[in-house]
Write a structure and sequence with these properties.
With about 80 residues, the protein is mainly α. About 80% of the residues lie in helices and about 0% in strands.
Length: about 80
């Protein structure tokens, strides 16, 4: 993937993650405990796939785009 496209996709993925987090809070505050548990589990799967299938491959191809907060703990 072209570097500029990768950078844009990562920005979109970050916005999606932020929106999913907001949706989890909304459901927690406005729905039953059962609905919340089911929704949180489903949203977690969505965010997991987003990272595993989109974000991680981009970061592997373009290590210069790895955010600083993800670099902590790496040796080298």
């Amino acid at each position: 993937m072209k570097h500029d496209v990768a950078k844009q996709v990562l920005a979109i993925a970050q916005r999606v993650t932020t929106e999913m987090d907001a949706s989890i809070s909304l459901v927690q505050n406005e729905c039953s405990d059962e609905e919340f548990a089911e929704y949180r589990k489903a949203a977690g799967r969505v965010m997991g796939y987003l990272f595993a299938d989109i974000v991680r491959p981009i970061l592997q191809e373009h290590p210069d785009l790895v955010p600083e907060e993800m670099k902590h703990g790496k040796k080298g």
